Amino acid sequence: xxxxxxxxxxxxxxxxxxxxxxxxxxxxxxxxxxxxxxxxxxxxxxxxxxxxxxxxxxxxxxxxxxxxxxxxxxxxxxxxxxxxxxxxxxxxxxxxxxxxxxxxxxxxxxxxxxxxxxxxxxxxxxxxxxxxxxxxxxxxxxxxxxxxxxxxxxxxxxxxxxxxxxxxxxxxxxxxxxxxxxxxxxxxxxxxxxxxxxxxxxxxxxxxxxxxxxxxxxxxxxxxxxxxxxxxxxxxxxxxxxxxxxxxxxxxxxxxxxxxxxxxxxxxxxxxxxxxxxxxxxxxxxxxxxxxxxxxxxxxxxxxxxxxxxxxxxxxxxxxxxxxxxxxxxxxxxxxxxxxxxxxxxxxxxxxxxxxxxxxxxxxxxxxxxxxxxxxxxxxxxxxxxxxxxxxxxxxxxxxxxxxxxxxxxxxxxxxxxxxxxxxxxxxxxxxxxxxxxxxxxxxxxxxxxxxxxxxxxxxxxxxxxxxxxxxxxxxxxxxxxxxxxxxxxxxxxxxxxxxxxxxxxxxxxxxxxxxxxxxxxxxxxxxxxxxxxxxxxxxxxxxxxxxxxxxxxxxxxxxxxxxxxxxxxxxxxxxxxxxxxxxxxxxxxxxxxxxxxxxxxxxxxxxxxxxxx
Length: 614
Ligand code: G6P
Prior knowledge:
Elements: E1 3-8, H1 13-24, E2 31-38, E3 41-48, H2 53-60, E4 69-77, E5 92-93, E6 99-107, H3 110-119, H4 131-141, H5 147-157, E7 160-168, E8 175-180, E9 185-189, E10 192-196, E11 209-211, E12 216-221, E13 224-229, E14 234-235, E15 238-239, H6 257-263, H7 265-273, H8 292-296, E16 300-305, H9 307-324, E17 328-332, H10 333-336, E18 347-353, H11 359-370, E19 374-379, H12 385-389, E20 392-395, H13 408-428, H14 433-454, H15 457-466, E21 472-477, H16 481-496, E22 499-504, E23 521-525, H17 532-543, E24 548-554, H18 558-561, E25 566-570, H19 579-596
Parallel strand pairs: 16-17, 16-18, 18-19, 19-20, 21-22, 21-23, 23-24, 24-25
Antiparallel strand pairs: 1-4, 1-10, 2-3, 2-4, 5-6, 6-7, 7-8, 8-12, 9-10, 9-11, 11-15, 12-13, 13-14
Bound molecules: 6-O-phosphono-alpha-D-glucopyranose.
């Protein structure tokens, strides 16, 4: 998974490329590179530098040719085929070195194509799946084809997922781009044309942004975009709505994006709830595209997601089953798509994805649509690929999230899914209006409660300081506390690189309790949900075996405090929506332990923000 950027018609392209690559680092950052068409030749620089790749690239490009740049492309990589080395960094070139290509995605049939190309005399210089594309285009151009025509022919031969951009010294002002199943957007302004993996990389350069669809080819020349199908049929690309400004995508004075984004959580929750109620207080989700008539005959809900989005989905299962009285199944996207899930036109299949680009989730949604289900996507990115492909969309309004470990988007997802649950209850008549209003009123107070929780960061820091030597953590919860426990454990793994298991507390006695010994830290979610008493019994079981117990508990709950070594107090709220508040101290705990262990919370090792590969 990688980030790509390209521009033509910008004589001083390098600063633009480097700035955009910084913006795209969340997509991967193990290596980076650029290629510029200058003085009738392609000049290329690449580096592999761990989390500093783009910064290293910036210093390496100081000796770039000084002449005006014609077309230019840049890439930040997250290795899939071939380790993160400068040789495997993009752009890749053909045998002549006059063609340079960048790619995000995976070419599945690269091995057979490489064998064929090598037999034809092509020499490869990397261990990537990408390089075959450069040589295939070279082969076509040798027969007299233009860069665009040769790229088209190449695309007919490759299988897999890709967004690509190609430049050639023979057509110095042109960039040819295409995509299949991974993101790519196009932009245009004052004599320049641009492309990038996502919208924030183009903000600051243009607001005229267009979507490229699967199997479309774009030819960018200064100030112009020409889009066709692979068969050469002209296409008018869809113009996208830009709701973010550049400042919103910057750190805003915080030490890192994660701190900034945690502090934006009250806004993320409040904005996600905005404009959802009609004049009579009833819920109106009119931008959702799926109308009441579509939803009235559903008899089952499937929710499919990955990572933190999956944990938000698990919270929604409790809410939907309770409010809507329909079976709600939750599945991990990478498993769902390869099972034989039983869905039909009466199933509502909800894909939850912050980015709206996660390949496992988008493919799962494609499968659900194929089986006839109604597909609804909960996404934070307006016009994301998944949002555009679905029957309906419910946007979270958390703004861009740059920190790799999701925080504000996770909270916004829980809120959006609970609003969806209440909306279904309203349409299907499974809850009285007063009850729906009661929950909506409680949801509307959440921003204050989240802000209050955030203010207690000093208490979390004190607890974290006492846990710096701990290496083994269990996160336990019951009922809606269980997904909170899973999310707390995931955050600690991602950020502090500590072994952390999330478990339903009642299941502990069936095996994992064997691992509890003095020194094990057990973090329990002990706010007052319907299983609170049983949760305290489970906590007593681990405490008597020597575990150090940290509990998240409602303000003033001395009964919970009595069985804990440390308490992280939170303001109480209705149990079904309590995860939105309860997860906050766990985010802060993981953040502080990451810092205490010297890790960068924004860019955890081996991870990427948006995973557009399997
Ligand atoms: C990656 C990120 C996680 C995120 C997951 C799902 O693994 O590191 O933080 O929860 O993808 O992402 P999505 O964009 O689909 O919500």
